[in-house]
Protein: Voltage-dependent anion-selective channel protein
Organism: Escallonia rubra
Amino acid sequence: MSKGPGLFSDIGKKAKDLLTRDYISDQKISVSTYSDSGVALTSTAVKKGGLSSGDVAAQYKYNNALVDVKVDTESNISTTITFTDIVPSTKTIASVKLPDYNSGKLEVQYFHHHASFTTTAALSQSPAVDLSATIGTPTFAIGAEAGYETSSGKLTKYTAGISVTKPDSSASIILGDKGDTIRASYVHYLDLLKKSAAVAEITRRFSTNENTFTVGGSCAVDNLTVVKAKLNNHGKLGALLQHEIMPKSVLTISSEFDTKALDKTPRFGLAFALKP
C-alpha cells in the first residue's frame, strides 16, 4: 500500500471501478503507438446509437512534466499539463478545452504521510472552487469535499467519507449530494494479484426513500482472461469478458440485461485496445 491516506476521490474508488469500469454499450477501437522521442499517440473510434465519433490523443513526458492533448471530431482541443514536485510533495494540473476559453481549470494536490489536500479553481472571472481534504493512514482515512461558487456565494456540494483498507479488502461509507444520499461499499480480494474479487454496494437516497443494492465481482479465468458481472435489486444484470489477445492488446465484450423486462433488447458493447 502507498504512503499516506490518498486523495478524497480515492475513497470508495475500488468498489466503483469494479462495478463500472470496462462496462460499455458501444463499439470502440483504440490504437496506440509510441515514437522514439517519447510521444504516445492514441486514436479512438466510437460507434454508439448509429452515430460515429472519435478522437486523437497525444501524450509527452519530459522530466517532471506530462502533457496530454486530445482532439475530437468536433475540433475541440483538450489540453492537460501535469507537473510533479514543483513544490515538494505536490502535483499541479492545468487543463483547458478550446475553443471554450472559460473551461480552464487549475488543480493543486498536496500529499503528506498523514494528510492530503486538493484545491481546484476554474480560470474565469467568477470561478467555482472545489476543496477536499483527507487525513489518516493508508489503512484508515476520513475526508471531506466542498464546492463553492463565487458568483452566487453558495456551496454547490459537500461530501464526507470514511474508508478502511486492508491488503485483502476495502470498505467505505460516503455521505454525498449535500447529505441526501449515503453509499456504503465493500470489496474483498480473492487472490494476491487482486484480479479476482467480490464487491457489494448499497445506496440510499433520503429524499425519495429509494435503495439500490448492487453485488458483483471479477474472476481471473487465466492469466489472459477476466470475467466480470454485476446485478442490482432493480434487475439490471451486466457482464463482460476481457481477453488479452497479445501483450497490451485487449478485447472487451460487454452486455447489459434488464431481468424484469426480458422483452427489451439487451445492450451489447465491444472494445478493442491495441498497444505496441
Notes: The domain at 8-274 is CATH 2.40.160.10 (Porin).
